[in-house]
Amino acid sequence: MAKENLSPVWSRTFTMTVSHGEGCYIYDTEGRRFLDFTSGIGVVNTGHCHPTVVAAAREQVGKIIHAHMNNYFHLPALALTDALLTIVPDKSFDTFFFTNSGAEAIESAVKLARMATKKSNIIVFQGSFHGRTNLTMATDTGSTIYRAGMGPLASGIFVAPFPYAYRYGWSVEETSQWCLKELRHMLYSQCAPHETAAVMIEPVIGEGGYVPAPASFLKGLREICDEFGFMFIADEIQTGFGRTGKFFSVEHADVTPDIIVFAKGIASGFPLSGIMSRRELMDKWTPGSHGGTYGGNAVSCAAGVATIGVLKDGVVENAAKLGPVLMDGLKKIQKKYPIIGDVRGLGLMVGVEFTNPDGTPGSKLSDQVKKQCFDNDLLLMQCGTYHQVIRWIPPLVVTEEQLQTGLDIFEKAVASAS
């Protein structure tokens, strides 16, 4: 098994080879056990290899693996729509389209919005990450690595400021109102409303630094969309399926988008993603104008049904309960060590931003802390434009004891870096 035969285009956070995983732990081929607080980048919300999900996938493999959605219906897809209807954030979400990856689902949402409105422009926000296809690269503004050297990219994408209060140095509400004002200015200076199909936002910016959008900002976006006739697209790829302590992050703000994009946590690691919207909106999508060979795969759908069942059985509540425990523990560490500039998040999606004494992003500090945590069997990842943020995304089945173990390891690493 030669690692050199794999393309180096994959950036790699850690260099070990994994043999298996169970719950919040993964094991490498040397037998070393790690507390995995990366969750496959927010995918295995039910933990690694949850037995209920494993059993559902095994059973489905023995029935049918590939049943093309353009050719006929299959039972797991129908069961998945039934399961999703029990957790949608609003009863208006009654129609679903399934595909494979988050980027594909974003493409789907944009195509639907453009066809439904007969307009082309899409507004995204500074720090966003929506994928690595040609269109989604054009919407990625958290780091140049995702788009440099790849042009020309898709046109019709406009970027508005995101309410990143710590970066601006203002209060959360002051930042929220300023960003809404700037968005309105954009509509008169760059992106004409009569050409604009949708506003697309991550309720918690992911790769850009794990920054939650204030409820006032999301409500303000909804008002602007209603005023000008835009679609409101919520990218819940990383925030969905319990990650923030509710099934969908927009529920914290009591806001109903027009389209919700989902992926990652829906199927515990099986490739599955999609969008949800109202039937009246989906009916504006010309049949045959969109699709895909593997979208809505039968085994992935069966895993999705099982995943939703597990999440409904107290797992989302566990994320809501332990989120404040994690936040409190990190804030206590912050008080001891000034190199931590900010701690923010929702549920079990929390970012810790490192800042140098001169106020510049603490990229090297973040690197050092991540490495020392790895040396002590804790896996954490970075994000942020400068990789200055450590993100906490443990499986939602994590226990308070496991969280405390992670916090203890993290504090020792922060102390060493200070």
Q: How far apart, in Å, are the first and last alpha carbons?
A: 40 Å
Q: Report Rg.
A: 21 Å
| Beta-strand percent range | 15-25%
Predict the CATH topology of the largest domain.
Answer: Aspartate Aminotransferase, domain 2
Query: Low-confidence segments, ≥5 residues, pLDDT <50?
Result: none
Which descriptor suits the 3D outline?
A: globular
Overall average residue pLDDT: 97
Find the structural class using helix and strand composition.
alpha/beta
**What's the architecture of the largest domain, going by CATH?**
3-Layer(aba) Sandwich
Outline the biggest β-sheet. 7 strands, mixed
How do the helices and strands follow one another from N- to C-terminus?
A: EEEHHHEHEHEHHEEEHEEEHHEEHEEEH
- Tally of individual helices: 12
Residue share in helices? 25-40%
Number of domains: 2
Strand order of the largest sheet: 4-12-11-10-7-5-6
CATH superfamily of the largest domain: Type I PLP-dependent aspartate aminotransferase-like (Major domain)
CATH class of the largest domain, please?
A: Alpha Beta
